[in-house]
């Protein structure tokens, strides 16, 4: 036989459809809870306790909640007994008091009215997302302020904290998920649909990633940067650089970027800190297309996977100091990090052979463990 706990679980599953019926202005209809009409107790006292438990939490006993309808049935072993054949909630108040949701539904109705007064076009979204209305119960007034601002100013070109909206400075950042959903509908013709970053999607300024690079040609450093050879600028600024260079060396680790200070003078060359998979930030640097590109990463599976990624942007990329001879000379038995990548990589035959060895043995040789003298000699002979 069904227990009060099971009745509550089944009633809770009907709560969301009930909320949807409120938005759709449907009158409350009797909510029926399907119950197990069988009984599990073999003795009369146990059976009576089972019945007493279900009755104790019913409207008959508590004044609200579910109503029980009984039918006299001839049972096997217990004779003729009154068994519950129907369990239902007669009214909205019975249902909500049983779930302890009266106040929540009152606030839900207020929130729905606020949203529809400002944006009647959100009606279908509300019907599909009643739980989100409740999850943001105390924030709707400010959420609507944000939406109203963007509807009037769909391309603000300001930083989030510059927006002239009378909400807490961190409000939009903390509530991006629901605001994004709403703006996608309210200003759909103005959004950058392929962008996932909130600021890019909704035409806002944002703190761009920085590209850190070293100018290895002192004459270029002097002419263009007053002798400064170690710089960091935003991605968009880096994409517009116009330097008289022929070669770019991308290095995986920051420590290796410092190593380039000791390199022999390299004419017409800059070295860039790629930051591992951060090479993604370089994918739209169109002036790379006409240059000689070199990638120097750790000799491990991730190093070659990053090389493959960078080469997918710029097919002319060559690897440096990522060969079997360098590995054999300086490998100290370090363990690497197992790869999760199973796709075919964009590597040369020799690179792929070394990658397979590293992958099978989980080996790693970090850039920092290659002696400066060896590195200097390598580039001196290039």
From TrEMBL:
Chain ranges of the DUF3322 domain: 4-184
InterPro entries per the UniProt record, alphabetical: DUF3322, JetD_C, UCP028408
Record domain Wadjet protein JetD C-terminal: where: 206-377
Record-given protein name: DUF2220 family protein
Organism phylogeny: Bacteria, Pseudomonadati, Bacteroidota, Flavobacteriia, Flavobacteriales
């Amino acid at each position: 036989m069904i227990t009060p706990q099971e009745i509550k679980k089944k009633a809770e599953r009907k709560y969301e459809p009930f909320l949807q019926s409120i938005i759709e202005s449907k009158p409350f209809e009797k909510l029926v809870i399907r119950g197990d009409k069988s009984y599990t107790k073999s003795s009369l006292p146990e059976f009576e306790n089972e019945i007493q438990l279900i009755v104790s939490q019913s409207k008959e006993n508590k004044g609200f909640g579910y109503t029980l309808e009984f039918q006299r049935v001839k049972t096997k072993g217990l004779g003729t007994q009154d068994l519950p054949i129907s369990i239902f909630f007669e009214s909205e108040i019975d249902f909500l008091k049983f779930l302890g949701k009266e106040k929540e539904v009152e606030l839900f109705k207020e929130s729905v009215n606020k949203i529809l007064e400002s944006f009647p076009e959100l009606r279908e979204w509300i019907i599909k997302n009643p739980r989100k209305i409740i999850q943001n119960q105390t924030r709707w007034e400010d959420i609507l302020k944000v939406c109203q601002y963007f509807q009037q100013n769909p391309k603000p070109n300001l930083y989030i904290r510059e927006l002239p909206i009378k909400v807490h400075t961190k409000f939009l950042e903390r509530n991006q998920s629901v605001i994004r959903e709403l703006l996608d509908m309210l200003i759909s013709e103005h959004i950058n649909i392929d962008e996932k970053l909130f600021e890019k999607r909704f035409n806002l300024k944002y703190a761009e990633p920085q590209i850190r690079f070293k100018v290895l040609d002192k004459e270029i450093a002097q002419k263009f940067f007053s002798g400064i050879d170690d710089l960091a600028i935003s991605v968009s600024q880096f994409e517009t650089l116009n330097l008289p260079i022929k070669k770019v060396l991308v290095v995986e680790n920051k420590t290796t970027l410092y190593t380039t200070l000791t390199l022999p003078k390299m004419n017409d060359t800059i070295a860039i800190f790629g930051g591992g998979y951060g090479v993604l930030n370089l994918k739209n640097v169109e002036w790379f297309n006409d240059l000689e590109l070199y990638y120097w990463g750790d000799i491990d599976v991730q190093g070659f996977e990053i090389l493959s990624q960078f080469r997918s942007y710029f097919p002319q990329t060559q690897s440096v100091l990522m060969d079997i001879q360098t590995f054999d000379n300086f490998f100290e038995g370090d363990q690497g990090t197992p790869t999760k990548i199973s796709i075919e990589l964009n590597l040369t035959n020799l690179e792929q052979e070394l990658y397979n060895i590293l992958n099978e043995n989980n080996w790693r040789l970090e850039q920092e463990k290659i002696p400066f003298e060896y590195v200097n000699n390598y580039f001196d002979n290039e």
